[in-house]
Amino acid sequence: MQLANIPLSILDRANARAGSSASDALSATVRRAQQAEQLGYQRFWVAEHHGVPGIAGSAPTVLMAAVAAQTERIRVGSGGVMLPNHQPLVVAEQAATLQALFPGRIDLGIGRSVGFTPAVRSALRQDKDAADRFAEDLAELLSYLGGTAAITARPSDGGATRPFVLATGQGAQIAAKAGLAVVVGGPAFTGRKPELARIVLERYRKNFRPSAYYAVPYVIASANVAVADSAEAARELLLPEAWAMAQSRTLGEFPPLEPVDSIRTLPMTPRQQDLVSETLAGAVHGTADQVALRLGLLLEATGADELMVTTNTFDTAALDDTDRRLAALFGLPR
User: Fold this and answer.
1) How confident is the model at residue 197, as a pLDDT?
2) Minimal CA–CA distance to 1: which of 220, 306, 219?
3) What's the pTM value of the predicted model, to 2 decimals?
4) Secondary structure element (H or E) that encloses residue 112, with its range
5) Is the peptide bond preceding residue 80 cis, with omega within 30 degrees of 0?
6) How far, in Å, are 19, 252, 280, 295, 326 from residue 274 at the CA level?
7) What pLDDT, on a 0 to 100 scale, did the predictor assign at position 1?
8) SS3 assignment, position 264
9) What whole-number distance in Å separates Cα of residue 62 and Cα of residue 57?
């Protein structure tokens, strides 16, 4: 597959870094968005996480406003707003306000995840079964955005904000019935069992019902991608986040990203070593030629219409470099 035919986007989680402040993390996200715009990326999305020491991005619509105000053309969105955590009317009002401020540039990525711990769910006034109401909440949200609800959300969006569903499995089927685009990713798509991705997407496309937003199915594939001069350098770029993920699954907390040199000196349990290896195996990393080959196979296998890169690392200069290399690989117009 010719990568030059595929739009390229970024999802940034506003990761915190050891020795730096939340202000530093958020400022780095805005600067990355500005470079992404200069390089010709299609979208720049930010995420929602609550009570996570290693992530400063807890309020995506607020961060979207900051990013959109400091850029001019790139589409800005959420990857995503977790709908179980919010009332649909409030989400619609926030999205419509952003759309009124930055016409034609706002995307609304919606997820169905709830808080990972009982304490977070309690603080959000939600229970672990809140995701089961996602289809109903999504329908209500769409009625406010489209102006068909019993009350009119203000400012009126008029269907200008395009929704996307971050989904696998059941969520993808909800998106299909609502006639919305899907964002899919994770190890099931880039790891050892890509057939799982094909099954999910086959069902999504088969069950898709055209809507006012999309006449045909639209798939964004997301993946951790790193490009460097050597395969080892690309792997090291992904190591800080892989180590943070291993700690979250063994110690219960996702910490700020640490520099590679520090990680090399840290003791790891066999379980942590396995988790780091598993995370790296599920990513796409290497030289430009190696990455181009793997991404071509991934996009061909999934039939994705767009690629969204989810990479982050401790070294912001190295992150800027891999974003530039990827843009060149996809032939993005500056």
Assistant:
1) 75
2) 306
3) 0.95
4) none
5) yes
6) 27, 16, 10, 24, 28
7) 65
8) helix
9) 9
Give how far Cα 311 sits from Cα of 15, 23, 147, 176, 195, Å. 10, 20, 36, 27, 23
- Listed residue (167, 159, 34, 66) closest to 112, CA to CA: 167
Tokens for 66? 């900051």
Q: Max CA-CA distance within the chain?
A: 60
Which residue type is seen at 193? Answer: K
Task: Indicate if the alpha-carbon torsion angle 126, 146, 61, 39 is positive or negative.
Answer: positive
Phi, psi (rounded to 5 degrees) for 313:
-160, 170
Query: Please, are residues 108 and 77 in contact by the beta-carbon 8 Å criterion?
Result: yes
Tens of pLDDT, residues 197-219: 788 899 999 999 999 999 999 99
> How is residue 187 written in tokens?
């190890």
Q: Please write the tens of the pLDDT for every residue from 104-148.
A: 999 999 998 776 667 777 777 777 777 789 999 999 999 999 999
- Reduce the DSSP state of residue 183 to 3 states and report it: strand
Distance CA 263, CA 240 (A): 7
Which DSSP letter does residue 83 get?
Answer: G
Q: Where are the beta strands (DSSP E) in the chain?
A: 8-12, 43-46, 75-82, 106-111, 162-166, 181-185, 219-223, 225-227, 284-286, 306-309
